[in-house]
């Protein structure tokens, strides 16, 4: 069981917009800790997509956006492209676990 | 640029130990800690612990406490993660990460009789 909860899968047609939720609790997201989002392609290490709730590293298209409210966070992907098909993970920190990294279980995005 | 290069794949028998290395370059090793994260086949990401690059302080989750030891060698800017009493469910890709942006390439550890 992952500390953060994500939907196992989402899907959308090319050009559409999808959102992936990440729900935590008062000891992690709700405690004010930052949320980061990763994209993982098969056989590769996770790649940082969004850091500090809503910031994009250099090179990440502005089709990707993040937000946070209360004990939850969301990743939105607009203008879906075939290359966006991947696994997406959220990550935060938890005060009950001495500031450890905590992850969502991951969401498989399928581009129809 | 920051780089984390990990050691190669390992195959171990149940009950054995494995030690994975993570060699850092491109920054001052003692200014940052190193996290270890693992991913079992087809599964999510699991945090294995953290070690300070400055003084070697560690923080392990309850699940692996007693089986994992993280160390550093500041002379070579290398972090190590040793996992003992290996079980089949320890089969996973093990990653080191300085921060959310900088990850190693991963090391596959297979536990099989």
Number of strands of chain A: 9
Strand content of chain A: 35-45%
Order of helices and strands of chain B: EEEEEEEEEEE
Q: Please report the number of helical segments of chain B.
A: 0
First-last Cα distance of chain B: 40 Å
Strand element count of chain B: 11
* Global mean pLDDT of chain B: 97
Radius of gyration of chain A, rounded? 13 Å
Calculate the mean pLDDT score of chain A and round it: 96
Fraction of residues in helix of chain B: under 10%
Oligomer: heterodimer
Q: How do the helices and strands follow one another from N- to C-terminus of chain A?
A: EEEEEEEEE
Largest protein interface?
A-B, 20 and 17 residues
Helix content of chain A: under 10%
The biggest beta sheet of chain A reads:
6 strands, mixed
Beginning-to-end CA distance, first to last residue of chain A: 29 Å
Number of helices of chain A: 0
Report Rg of chain B.
13 Å
Note the overall shape of chain B: globular
Q: Uncertain spans of chain B, ≥5 residues at pLDDT below 50?
A: none
